[in-house]
Every structure is written in C-alpha cells, then in structure tokens.
Write a structure and sequence with these properties.
By secondary structure, the protein is of the alpha+beta class. It is built from eight helices and eleven strands.
C-alpha cells in the first residue's frame, strides 16, 4: 500500500472530525478486547470504554438503536450477548446539541451532555479478516457521519472484508457504497423480516486508494445495468446470477433516481 494513499484517507478522516468540533470516536465493548483493536484507525484516536463499567452508555446506545429501527431494534440481551461480549461498537460521541432535536428531547439530554451521534456494529466471523455488518445509525442530520463511523469502526476492527445486508430501495445503499463498489453475494441466509427485498453484499477494504476516492464520491464506475428498485423479479434474477458465481457489483452511488446501478463483470 503506497504511503500516500493511507495519508490521503487519514487526512479525510481528520477533516471530517475537524468540521465537527466536540466529536470523538469511542469503542464500547468487553474489556477483554481492548488489546485486539486498532485504537488509532487512520490516525484517529479512539477511547476504549469497557462495557462492564459503562452501563449508562450501553443503555443510551440501546435506546437509540430501538428508536432508529423500531420493531427490529436490538433486544437488550442481544446487545449484551452478541454485540458487547464478543466485539465492540464504534461510537461517534458528541455534545447532545448536535443531535436531531426530537432525539435529544426523547433521550432527555441537555445541550452539553455527552451523547452518541452515530454508531456502527460489525460482528466478528469465523473467516479471518471478514466481519459482518449488523447495525449502522446516525442522528446527526447533514453531517455525513454514517460512512465515517462505519469506515473508522471497520479499520478499528482490522477488517479486510465486510459482508452486510441491505434492501434494494433503502437510501442506506448510498451510504454503504461510500466505501466503494458492493459485490453482490446473494440472498440473506435463514430468512429476514425484509427478505424479499434484501441482498447480501461484500465490500473489499484493503485498497486505500479506492476507499479514499469512494469516500469523497470521486470513484467513477459506469453501470452496465439500471434496474428499478421496485422490480423484485429482475433483482432476484441478479441474485441468481451472483449465487452462480457471476461477478456483479452495485457501483457508487448504488441507488439513483429509484434505480439500482449494476456493473457486470470484474471491475478491472
């Protein structure tokens, strides 16, 4: 990896934080994992807070997650057993005045109270270097915090590849594609509340040049197909092709004017 590529991505991360004074990155997880994390991802300092001694912060995350995802928000036992015990959540912490007003009021926070503005959790997997994206949220309107808390958390976890689940018509596809092209993997295993309109994607995280270009929307890859996000039959056929081994990517921004942007074949 050329040093200049790493430096460029690091400068972009520094510029994001500099644009939002008071914001900082925190890792919340079992104290057992502090030594396994990169607590300076892209040169950004991370404060590790053991979840065993920071129950109030864990409960604030739980409240935000359930507020963001409603009926499929994380249950309390899942937060303990499957988020905090095996891994760590990346949190962008900031003064509560930066939060969307309804959220700040819902949490009962004063303007200068420390608050979670954005958060990302990716679960470890049995495949070395591969993590599974689970939950991304942001209550910092207009800041672009979502892709940065995602990228910095993945770097903190030393991830080389990411697999995640998204819905074809969900604007989050545009956020996920800020980390570059999304290779189509196939259908969600085991069923899902939104299974009929969901897909599994994979992001490759080792090409720093591509990451940097994608984060600032400078990565230009022309789609060969534009499929309406409502055409579930055509999208299901794409997943058939991906599961059969064909290389297919959603290229940035992934979703545009209600159409899914697909590129067939290797990226080159």
């Amino acid at each position: 990896m050329p040093m200049g590529d790493a430096d460029t991505l690091s400068r972009q991360a520094e510029d994001f934080l500099a644009a939002h004074p008071g914001a900082s990155l925190v890792a919340l997880g079992s104290g057992e994992h502090a030594g396994s994390l990169d607590l300076s991802p892209l040169g950004v300092p991370v404060t590790f807070l053991p979840a065993e001694r920071n129950a109030d912060l864990a409960m604030q995350y739980l409240a935000l997650n359930q507020l963001a995802f409603g009926g499929i928000g994380v249950p309390r036992w899942v937060l303990s057993d499957l988020y905090l015990l095996p891994g760590a959540i990346g949190l962008l912490r900031c003064p509560a005045r930066m939060l969307a007003a309804p959220v700040r009021e819902r949490l009962g926070l004063a303007d200068e109270d420390p608050a979670i503005g954005a958060a990302y959790y990716a679960a470890p997997s049995v495949t070395p270097g591969l993590v599974i994206g689970v939950s991304l949220l942001s209550v910092l309107p207009g800041t672009g915090a979502s892709p940065w808390v995602k990228l910095l958390t993945l770097q903190m976890l030393r991830a080389r590849r990411l697999r995640g689940v998204a819905q074809w018509d969900n604007p989050s596809v545009r956020v996920h594609s800020r980390l570059g092209p999304l290779r189509l993997v196939g259908r969600v295993p085991g069923g899902h509340e939104y299974g009929e309109r969901s897909f599994v994607y994979e992001s490759e995280l080792t090409d720093r040049t591509r990451l940097g270009d994608a984060m600032v929307r400078r990565l230009s890859l022309t789609p060969s197909l534009r499929v309406p996000a409502t055409d579930l039959s055509a999208l299901s056929a794409l997943l058939d092709r991906a599961e059969a081994g064909e290389v297919l990517h959603l290229v940035p921004p992934g979703l545009e004017a209600g159409q899914v942007l697909v590129r067939e074949g290797p990226l080159g």
